[in-house]
Amino acid sequence: MASVFSMIINGDIPGRFVWKDDTAVAFLTINPVTPGHVLVVPREEIDHWEQVDPAVFAHLTAVSQTIGQATRDAFDAPRMGLLIAGLEVPHLHIHVFPAHSVETFDLALAEKDPDPASLEDAATRIRAALRAAGHEEHTSD
């Protein structure tokens, strides 16, 4: 059975994508710890991060860094958080989010029912920052 992330990648479930390429996608999580919380996900279903091909992992971290820079600019964040938890969905995903304090890293404190308009606003802001940084070929609306 496909993971929920594969269903989002395949368009079976809607997602607010900010990045797409042949190896990875990035989209807003529906349970953000802060506005602008993005998940960077390989297209291939890989459960454990330590089992991913090193080249794919390097690509995922490069995309995470690019998304992090754009998100920092879009939200004027003092720091950017990066986390691999892997317990919520059995499909490798990297959390990238504006970090204002160490509490930001507690996924248990994620917003359970965010306003869809705030998620769409965050996606729009991140896409605009990515385009401004020259990554328009990977952004999508």
UniProtKB/TrEMBL annotation:
Motif mapping: Histidine triad motif: 91-95
InterPro entries per the UniProt record, alphabetical: Histidine_triad_HIT (IPR001310), HIT-like (IPR011146), HIT-like_sf (IPR036265)
Transmembrane segments: none
PROSITE patterns named among the record's database cross-references: HIT_2
Coiled coil (UniProt feature): none
HIT domain span: 4-109
PANTHER family per the UniProt record, alphabetical: ADENOSINE 5'-MONOPHOSPHORAMIDASE HNT1, HIT FAMILY PROTEIN 1
Protein name: HIT family protein
